[in-house]
Every structure is written in structure tokens, then in C-alpha cells.
Amino acid sequence: MKKLLCALLLWTGSFLSIQAEPPAPIPLTSITEADLKEFHESPPEVKKLIREALRLATLKLKYLYGSADPANGGVDCSGTIHYLLKEVGLTGVPRDASGFYEWSWKQDRFHSVISTDPASFEFKHLRPGDLLFWIGTYDVKRDPPISHVMLYLGTHAVTHERLMMGASSSQSFKGTPHEAVTVSTWNLARQGQPGARFIGYGSIPGLVAQPADDSKAPRPATVPPSEDSFKIKDLSIHPPILFPEFKQSKEKE
Prior knowledge:
It is a single chain. By secondary structure, this protein is of the alpha+beta class. The protein has helices at 2-20, 44-56, 77-87, 97-106, 239-242, 244-252, and strands at 62-63, 74-75, 110-112, 131-135, 146-155, 162-173, 176-185, 197-202. The protein has a domain at 34-204: endopeptidase domain like (from Nostoc punctiforme) (endopeptidase fold (from Nostoc punctiforme)), CATH 3.90.1720.10. It has six helices and eight strands. The strands form two sheets. Strands 3-8-4-5-6-7 form a six-stranded antiparallel β-sheet. Helices cover 26% and strands 20% of the residues.
């Protein structure tokens, strides 16, 4: 009888512990294009890039500084973007984060952000397939000192979290930290890196045509007036307008 009672108590305790256990977080590699709210509205070139990024995220690659080749078992942040863009057919792709920043900036595709509010108007032009830039994630000896770059995927269709993909040593998804090449929740701040600061985002040159933006349209060149334009060649052409008193005195004579 005592043995039966002990067995019953053990079984009940095990059952309760199983019931109290929180549900396992969604595996990072389980994210698919169907989970991305804006995916079906994106241009074909962006869809291709995001599909390749999601495929790369399933390979269980680690963060490996200095690598841009998945065959090494890992890649770093800029190496991930470099590899992805070459895979979708782009050429002349930069290799480091500063290079990506300069590439986007010189093509007038970069949007600076100084706000710490994710709902800021400064994110008006953010689109899936854009690059995200940080400074201060670690000490770099180049100028500009861009130290981290990731690929923006869009918002999760259910949780509405903004998601990004890339190689990182200090990101998380659904509260689970990781150091890998995978999908992450995009936060402006970076865990464990108080000196890090998000500085802006930019579309990828050559991937899709840049949308029209009147605020960035080039202004027509201003032609300086010639010296002759200030000279009055014939005072008799419009005397009533220029010199009405002169005309009246001539009529009296």
C-alpha cells in the first residue's frame, strides 16, 4: 500500500512539473517566408534575397569573425551579407560593414536615424531587404567606424516583431539569446553592448530600382546671370514702365 501511494505521488509530481513547464520557444530556423507580413508585397529581387537568407539561417552556422564562406562552418556579420548578395547575383559587393555603409550612402540610399523610438518617423522608408547599421558593437580602426550590419526581413505576421537576419554574437529571438547566423528580433539597442548605437538603414544598390523621392531629387542647376543681362539696351522700349516721368516730360516739349 505504501509503495502504491509513493508511486502515485511521484507520478502526480511529474505530471504537475510537465504541466508547469513553459512552452518551448519557436526555433529560430523555423521562420519561413509565410511568417513575414510584407513578403508577398516585396519585389521579386527582395523575395529572392530573403529566401536565400532564410535558407542560410537553417544551416546552423556559428558566428566566425573574418569569414565570408559558410564552408568554414561560420561567417561574421558583413561576411553573411557579402555571401548573400553574391548568391543573388550582385557584383562589386563590399566585404566589411563600413564598406556596405559607404556603398549605400554614396548611392543616396542611406537613411540616418538618431531616434531611439522604433515608431519614429525616421523609419518611414524602411523596407524588407534593407541593411541595418550599428556603431560601437566593438572597437574598429576604420572610418567611418561602422561595426555591425544585418539584413532587415520585415515584421512577423503574428507577433508583429521586426525581424532581421545575419551573424551576431549578442542577439536574441523570443527572449532566447544566441550566437549564430540566424533570425533575430531587431532591437535598436544591443544586449550586453551599452556603447552600441543604431545609426540608420539603407537599401541595397543594384538590387531593385530606387523608389522616387521628391525630397532627394536633384535640383536643376542654376545658371549665373551674365553681365549683359543687367544692362538696359534701349530705354525707348518700355518707357511707361521704367521711366514714366521721362515720357511725360518729352510729350510737353
